[in-house]
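Good morning C.,

I know you're traveling, so I'll keep this short. The sequence:
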Amino acid sequence: MELPLDTSRLQQILEQERKLGYSDKAVIGGLDLFLSNWWMQYSTNIRNPVSLKQFKKLLPPTFSYISATPDKRQAWTASLLKLLETPQDNPVSIDTTSTTKVRRTAPKQTSCSADSITAPITSVKGIASTLSERFAKLGVHTIRDLLYYFPNRHLDYSHLQTISTIIESKEQTIIANIWEVRLTTAGGKRHTEATLGDESGNMRAIWFNNPYVARQMKAGVRVIMSGRIKIFSGRPVFESPEWELYDEGELIHTGRLVPLYPLTSGLYQRQVRKLIKSIIDTFAPQIPEIMPADILQKRNLVSLPDAISQAHFPQDFPSKERARVRLAFDELMLLQIGVMAKKRKWQKDQLGLPFKINKTLLKHFLASLPFTLTKSQHRVISEIYSDLSNPTAMSRLLQGEVGSGKTIVALSALLMTAANDCQGALMAPTEILARQHFLSVCKLLGNLGHLESQDASSAVFSEIFDKPLTVALLISDIKGTAKKELKNRLSNSEIDIAIGTHALIQKEVCFAKLGLVVVDEQHRFGVEQRSALRQKGFNPHMLVMTATPIPRTLALTLYGDLDLSVIDELPPGRQEIKTKWFSPAQRELAYRFINKEISARRQAFIICPLVEESDAVQAKAAIAEYERLSTQVFPNLRLSLLHGRMSATEKDHIMEAFNRHESDILVSTPVVEVGVDVPNATVMMIESADRFGLSQLHQFRGRVGRGQFQSYCMLMSENPSDIGRMRLDIIETTQDGFKLADEDLKLRGPGEFFGTRQSGIPDLRMAKLSDTSILEMARTEAMLLFETDPDLKAAKHRQLAIELARVWGTKSSEWSGS
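The tokens, ready to paste straight into the viewer:
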């Protein structure tokens, strides 16, 4: 039976889209998704070849309504409406019997446009709301997220053996017949046990605490089985192996490189593996290629569909590595182009206020210091002063280890700002750090000039300039009349240097003439917070500082929009913090050492284990540890507790009390503040130290050793993995933060090196930031692309522009020039 093709719904939507100004709001999910579904349903049933040709011309596989300019959208809509409204000599018809078939097999025929892969995973058959909620905990919401949900590693089940040739403790695969399957009970739990054999012999397999296998596996079937072998009573036994029926088709769980995915409660490897294999088979072959053909050819990179497929289910290890290189290149290329665009936009749009550099002032300031600056500090000050004297506003990242003297460098820049009749602002992540900076700056300025007056929130100095220099502290702890007066003085240009927390970016805080913004521990602030402070002035210069060592190549990648300065040497005489890894048998010895230090009127930090579930679980664990230490280990000492569920004010009060020596031991989760200065603390004990990265361990270690006394870092670890053991060995013998950062990158591999999400940088899934060859390759190609087509207007860069817009959360027109 043939029926006229019903195009009324499509016509209604197109008419509505016209009324809405071609804004892509006529249908939920966007016009591209609707068109994809409409075309998938009807295209195979259009009998009129003329009509089919016209439809294909208007709806090619590469068509993307959302990426088109408003003018192109208008013209395309008019053309399609005209086609729909024009009567045909041969009516377009549809076969009702084949319609049912098309609908039933639609998932296999899905056209994978950029929009169809953004559909929620619930649109996939077999993924209900419960399963989607579990995936949501892992950040997987769309079909694209599943395609890019790469395994942590692969098990090598590609080595096929016979039963007589298998060896213990190695991953291997056999093809065998199941002779018997039975349920057994031991230790109150039910297990599945099977007897299997091939032409060379027989063996057993056992699945502990898993009676379900007995329901799925039947005697008499032929299976492929992969896993590790153990020898019991001289005979080989498979322990909880993976298995598949021999004639089930393409292997997923056995006989190949088998992916192991990160999971959460309610998800299982076999389930996730099978689902992702289905998604890849359906969607991967049709994913739009984002890289231009000339780059792929020049760099010998595999296609994107092939890379995604091989990243999940590789044919062999070389295929897996080729896939990783391609996907890592994509990530780093997109990252490079994004940060280069940010830098270009800043340099192009943001003309700054050039400062006159007063060399006499700098000379007097350096002479007033109670110590001599290092060569690194002198070099960095010169780099900053060069930026300040330019008409383009400075955007510079200053990195240097704890104690390397970043504050001195920042103060030299703030002084030069005041010398040019502008105001400077220094923003710290916590109130205690802001107060610490305020007291430190006041002490240094007291050596340069004469302190006229000082209270808890401001200080006035004479004999530095022709007029008094005023420094103020603005934090939420300062309230009422005092805060109101500070804000008034700031807006009236009566304050030259303002030091504070996020209180500096509150709406009601106004600067009269903000010339320089300094952000301390920059990775603790989001892009929006840094931007909010910068917007308090007319394109002020910006200096962001971090004590987290970052290898230069990585810094150029993550912060390509900033110029880079590094203080790569510590002041002479800086003491080494003695670091030792303690085994469980040495725990009592470690506790006795802490008691000894505290009896000498020193103090100690104890960092609780890293708990990944949540702040709430971490806080609960810290409270339990605090109570155990207070009652069982150090009952005669004063202990305090710090954890992530406390408010910022509570944390500050606890840290200040510890700084005043009102407690002997601070028990803390990993939230213990970076940069906190407690000169009397000499011991840092880190529980489950093997679970932290090297850079984080180094940051914890940097909390001690700030006074005149010898300090110690005690690493507690019960049963470290091979990588954990390597970390402990490295941190024991290495004090150089930059060397540790390099080693950390090698050990940690893919993912975030530190807080990239906070810094506004897209996450890296496949890029190993230690892989400098791919970094350099991506950087070179990004620079060449930026020179020839910075706005990505060329047709061959269209998909790249769309992907950049997705990754960086901008409109594609910002990249395509549309």
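Safe travels,
E.
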